[in-house]
Design a protein that fits this description.
Structural class: mainly alpha
Radius of gyration: 19 Å
Shape: globular
Largest sheet: none
Strand content: under 5%
Helix content: over 70%
CATH class of one domain: Mainly Alpha
CATH topology of one domain: ABC transporter involved in vitamin B12 uptake, BtuC
Number of strands: 0
Number of helices: 11
Length: about 270
């Protein structure tokens, strides 16, 4: 299995997996704490519109997906706050609009779109050196902002109203975190694809919450779980020639099941004693 490390593309994929799994775990902890899972699902599927437009115009699909992701996340906030539309209804509008535009632009693109499956189902082995620089830059920005505004981020994640009353810069932190969530979703598409992305953004966190309750410990434990599952999944997929994204998600699901079983056994032993 270790012979895969002799290939440059595999080493690049390994570095990308490590960066993205840790970043998605931190962002996922924020998403779960703020109960933003539905919004993240809407952003994920709205990205398809950006991918389709990118293919149609002949420019970077990832860049256009990022534009659509940020625009849709801000759009949900605008629809729910300014137009008094229920948040779940706003998510449905963004979700449907993004998918419809994606299908339309892909259909209108001349010829066959060979990379579309990689964005739908993930293919981290196709990651390039510029992609790695983008992943590294994002990880640096996320770590820097989290170190700078950790107290406010945690307060906003658990109780936005209390944070606002306390005089914390809630609007600024919420806006920046919304953009960081959108960018993380776009970057993680390369790892597990649009179809399985929400599993990557939620399973490590709900597994970590079996053992932890505070924001930072949950983020750290979920990052370790995500990193272990992603690296292991990459090696397994390369060894048996199966999709990396599916293996990673199955490993994360298995970790959650094992954690719940162990928790139940500990409770039963405690009650028995």
């Amino acid at each position: 299995m270790w012979q895969f490390l002799e290939y440059g593309f595999f080493v690049q994929a390994l570095v990308a997996v490590a960066l993205l799994s840790v970043c998605s775990a931190v962002i996922g902890t924020y998403i779960i704490s703020r109960r933003m899972v539905a919004i993240s699902g809407g952003i994920t599927h709205a990205c398809f519109g950006g991918l389709g437009l990118g293919y149609y115009l002949g420019i970077s699909p990832v860049l256009m997906a990022a534009v659509f992701a940020i625009g849709s996340s801000l759009g949900v906030d605008a629809l729910s706050s300014r137009l008094r539309l229920r948040e779940d209804s706003a998510i449905a509008v963004v979700w449907a609009l993004g998918m419809a535009l994606g299908v339309l632009f892909v259909f209108m693109t001349p010829g066959y779109v060979p990379e579309l499956n990689a964005f739908l189902f993930g293919n981290i082995l196709t990651v390039s050196t510029p992609d790695l620089w983008a992943f590294g830059a994002y990880a640096l920005v996320l770590a820097s902002f989290f170190a700078w505004k950790r107290r406010t981020i945690v307060a906003v994640a658990f109780d936005r109203d209390f944070a606002a009353v306390s005089g914390l810069p809630v609007k600024m932190v919420s806006l920046v975190m919304t953009v960081l969530v959108a960018l993380c979703i776009v970057l993680t598409i390369r790892l597990v694809g649009i179809m399985l992305l929400m599993s990557m953004m939620s399973l490590p966190m709900i597994t970590a919450e079996v053992w932890c309750r505070r924001f930072v410990p949950v983020a750290v434990v979920s990052a370790l779980i995500s990193l272990a599952a992603s690296v292991t999944g990459l090696f397994i997929s390369a060894a048996v020639d199966v999709p990396c994204s599916a293996v990673i998600v199955l490993l994360l699901a298995a970790a959650f099941v094992v954690a719940k079983i162990v928790q139940s056994l500990k409770k039963s032993v405690y009650l028995h004693n």
